[in-house]
Amino acid sequence: MTKRGLSIILPSRTQPRQAVFLERAVASINAQTALADFDVTVLVGVDAGQVPEGDIGRRLGVTFVESHGRSQAAALNAAIRLADTEFVAFLEDDDQWHPQYLENAIRALSLGAFVSSTQVEFDENNVLLRVNDFPTPSGWFMPLTTLRAVGEFNEEYGFHLDNEWLGKLGEAGLARLHMVESTAPVAVKFAAQVRPWLASVVRMSGGFARLWRHASPYPLVRRLVHPQSGMAQRATNPAVKEMAEREYARLVDRFGRIPW
């Protein structure tokens, strides 16, 4: 059987645990049950002048791509420009995939042009915090044609670049599947009662998203919550929170809503 090309794009910031994060993320890629079906290229986007020294790229089997700037959007875009495979997926360096993520993502993609996923969040002590229903980029999977139709990330956004990209996805009119656990509601009227963020994924998509159950009782993306994350900074730093809120206002001006 001919393998299908897949570029996996990881944005990675220089910090003391960068190597540990990358090792965990890549290990979760290598543990995929459907890995043998794909010819995988892992592109790690980093800030200008921040390509790690040593043999970590060779050891992990990844290619570091240096951006022109010092932001997550710039790092993502630098890697996106090198993607030339049939499919593209995203995984932040401090997150991991469940072993059946790819297997389910390719199944869901048969029903649309873009796939995302719920996540289960853990802290640094491996304590489970919550299920997060927002379609974070660590669960995005799509054909390259979808990525090219929507375009790159807007580098004017420092916090809500994912919302802005999802807004452009809605403008492109492409059908979306949001993967949820086997026990999650998929009817919007029920999701709104018990898991309102799931309802928001559908309602704030521009009319193109629906919920799709997989067989696992657990989300297919594992997300690490730590003090250096953007979410943590927004929660603890008033200046960062103000900047994020200004971006929300820009999104409403641009799309008439905060896209999910």
Q: What is the percentage of strand-forming residues?
A: 15-25%
User: How are helices and strands ordered from N to C?
Assistant: EHEHEHEEHEEEEHHEHHEEHH
Number of strands: 12
Which residues form runs of ≥5 with pLDDT under 50? none
Helix content: 25-40%
Question: Quick summary of this structure?
Answer:
This protein has 260 residues and is an alpha/beta fold. It has a single domain (4-255), classed as Spore Coat Polysaccharide Biosynthesis Protein SpsA, Chain A (Alpha-Beta Complex).
Protein model, in words:
- The N and C termini lie far apart (36 Å).
- The strands form three sheets. A five-stranded mixed sheet has the order 3-2-1-4-9. The protein has a four-stranded mixed sheet with strand order 5-12-7-8. A three-stranded parallel sheet has the order 6-10-11, with helices on both faces.
- The protein has helices at 18-30, 56-60, 72-80, 101-109, 144-150, 161-172, 188-194, 196-203, 230-236, 238-255, and strands at 4-11, 38-46, 63-66, 87-90, 95-97, 114-117, 119-122, 128-132, 141-143, 176-180, 209-213, 221-224.
- With 260 residues, the chain is an alpha/beta fold.
- The longest helix has 18 residues, at 238-255.
- It has a single domain (4-255), classed as Spore Coat Polysaccharide Biosynthesis Protein SpsA, Chain A (Alpha-Beta Complex), CATH 3.90.550.
- Helix 2 links the parallel strand 2 (38-46) and strand 3 (63-66).
- It has ten helices and twelve strands.
